[in-house]
Design a protein that fits this description.
InterPro entries: PyrdxlP-dep_de-COase, PyrdxlP-dep_Trfase, PyrdxlP-dep_Trfase_major. Keywords: Decarboxylase, Lyase, Pyridoxal phosphate. One of its GO terms (biological process) is gamma-aminobutyric acid biosynthetic process. There is one protein chain. By secondary structure, the chain is an alpha/beta fold. The protein has 4 domains: 79 residues, no CATH class; 68 residues, no CATH class; 188 residues, Type I PLP-dependent aspartate aminotransferase-like (Major domain) (Aspartate Aminotransferase, domain 2, 3-Layer(aba) Sandwich); 120 residues, Aspartate Aminotransferase, domain 1 (Alpha-Beta Complex), CATH 3.90.1150.170.
Length: 582
């Protein structure tokens, strides 16, 4: 038989107020009879009833039991069953009180994020507080696990603070590690509204405003390419955008693939450069082409596709009874920032009847500048284009677009007209139900932040943003050329990737090519290691074919200034001179 608490075990009907920071919860102490009554009343009054007993907190346990009972209960020396008291001072809250708490919590979060943004803009602040995975697991062990029982809002606020503490500040003006960086306040505001609206993008009826914004924004991008009409959709990243292009090219050459699959299809061949993004190969795997049907075209010393080799590979495929299908050219390669000669490639594609795709996920920023759009000359002749505004335009992640010259290609290629979503007898123009042309069903609203940011900057603002980055690129190249110990991987880079080595003074007399290769390979990696540990800046590095590890500094953050360039160069020198190779 279970023991019932004595009258002095729990104080009845005594109202308490428990305050934790700004989040207040009205609490009431109840015995079993009071608990049942509270449940009955909460159901009757339609208010929220919650509660739990935290057995890891002796102070709260002591407040619920008298001295004789508490020691037995906590030491397990009693048959007293605590299950019925599985509550942390039962509390009931009406709906208006909950809304007040949620509002205060959101206000606290906004204040936290604004403080994070303010500190990020302090140039002397750290870019990151680096910990190895096992160290970070240990440091965040108290809040990393997902609990069985709910945590209060104060704990959640603490969790958010702890999370930001260890995040890399990708909006910091001295963060040069990835192509996607920077933090635009207007784009962030767009993300806030997007999250609050929390809608999908497959039909007009659930996203009327955002659907129209998407139409306007996609046409704006097509205009910049040089197309008066066409098709397009926002996608979750450049990899999926490139997949869309390959699926469309496959459909254009073999429409029966939609019903018959690849069983009776000819052997279609994709051509891309050896320095193209790996997503082309991945898309070939997913779409059924297979890696053997991806022919890698040689590049020159600057990373550009060799068009003579392209023609050789096309002729070779024809001789082998295969069907050349498409060329995936690149506008701004990931490592060297090289632009394939699109105009020349487009003429080759026209000659052989090939689909031309331009992956300018990174290099599309050049289209925003009258001074630099020549880098993409001939892009208007492409059949499809990948454009990532979250790269050179510095829109918050993620924001990626696939664009097509031909209208309705996406719906013809991917459409299935699911009856539960895309009914044709709706009371509005169903052409605005764009979800059927997507390879997804649910699709995130990625347009609003771009639309809002473009409204704030205009074409002129984006042009100035891109032009200023090119000015910084020229300044950095000049500094590297003049400073002892630095060597450029390629002279006069045409885009915003600046690739170089730094040789510490003690290793500058190494003569043999093999020893120098090994030294450069190790020094670059060790400088990056020291850079992470100091947390003052971030730059990526990588090898490339026969070249040893080298730094790749990316300029896409609009907040970067000349003093940041000076700092990172001096920091590399400082860290490099501290290195000792074994």
């Amino acid at each position: 038989m279970k023991h019932q608490p004595t009258s002095d075990c729990v104080e009845r009907n005594k109202k308490k107020v428990r305050r934790k920071n700004k989040f207040v919860t009205k609490s009431y102490s109840l015995d079993k009879q009071g608990l049942c009554e509270a449940k009955r009343l909460s159901k009757k009054l339609a208010i929220n009833f919650r509660g739990q007993l935290n057995f890891d907190n002796p102070k709260k346990q002591n407040s619920l039991f008298n001295q004789n009972q508490k020691s037995k209960l906590l030491t397990g020396k009693t048959n007293y069953d605590p299950d019925w008291t599985n509550f942390e001072g039962c509390f009931a809250t009406d709906e208006s009180f909950q809304e007040s708490q949620e509002t205060e919590f959101l206000q606290e979060i906004v204040e936290l994020l604004l403080d994070y943004l303010k500190k990020m803009r302090i140039k002397t602040s750290k870019v990151l507080d680096f910990h190895h995975p096992h160290q970070l697991k240990q440091a965040m062990a108290h809040c990393m696990e997902i609990p069985d029982t709910p945590k209060d809002l104060e704990q959640l606020l603490s969790d958010c603070k702890e999370t930001l503490k260890y995040c890399v500040k990708t909006g910091h003006s001295r963060y040069f590690n990835q192509i996607s960086c920077g933090l635009d306040a207007i784009a962030v505001a767009g993300e806030f509204l997007t999250a609050m609206a929390n809608t999908n993008m497959f039909t007009y009826e659930i996203a009327p405003v955002f659907t129209l914004m998407e139409e306007v924004t996609l046409q704006k991008l097509r205009d910049l390419i040089g197309w008066s009409s066409g098709d397009g959709i926002f996608s979750p990243g450049g990899t999926i955008a490139n997949l869309y292009a390959i699926l469309a090219a496959r459909f254009a050459y073999y429409p029966d693939v939609k019903t018959r699959g690849l069983f009776d299809a000819p052997r279609l061949i994709i051509f891309t450069s050896e320095q193209a993004h790996y997503s082309i190969k991945r898309a070939a795997i997913i779409s059924g082409f297979g890696l053997n049907q991806v022919k890698l075209v040689k590049c020159n010393e600057r990373g550009k596709m060799d068009t003579e080799n392209l023609i050789e590979l096309i002729n070779e495929s024809i001789e082998n009874k295969n069907i050349p299908c498409m060329v995936c050219s690149t506008g701004g390669t990931t490592v060297l920032g090289a632009f394939d000669p699109i105009d020349e490639i487009s003429k080759i594609c026209k000659r052989f009847g090939l689909w031309l795709h331009v992956d300018c996920a990174w290099g599309s920023g050049a289209l925003l500048s009258k001074s630099h759009r020549y880098l993409l000359n001939g892009i208007e002749n492409a059949d499809s284009v990948t454009w990532n505004p979250h790269k050179a335009m510095a829109v918050t992640l993620q924001c990626s677009v696939i664009l097509f010259k031909k209208e309705s290609i996406l719906e013809n290629c991917n459409g299935l007209c699911a009856d539960y979503l895309f009914q044709k007898d709706k009371n509005y123009d169903t052409r605005y139900d764009t979800g059927d042309k997507s390879i997804q069903c649910g699709r995130r609203n990625d347009v609003f932040k771009l639309w809002l940011m473009w409204r704030s900057k205009g074409d002129e603002g984006f042009q100035n943003q891109i032009n200023e980055l090119f000015i910084l690129k020229d300044y950095l190249c000049k500094i590297i050329k003049e400073k002892n110990g630095f060597e450029m991987v390629i002279e006069k880079p045409e885009y915003l990737n600046i690739c170089f080595w730094y040789i510490p003074e003690k290793y500058r007399k190494i003569d043999t090519a093999k020893e120098k290769f090994t030294m450069l390979h190790e020094v670059t990696a060790k400088i990056k290691q020291s850079m992470l540990e100091s947390g003052t800046t971030m730059i990526s590095y990588q090898p490339l074919f026969e070249k040893p590890n080298f730094f790749r500094l990316i300029l896409s953050n609009p907040s970067c200034k000349v003093e940041d360039i000076d700092f990172v160069v001096d920091e590399i020198v400082k860290l490099g001179e501290e290195i000792n190779l074994k």
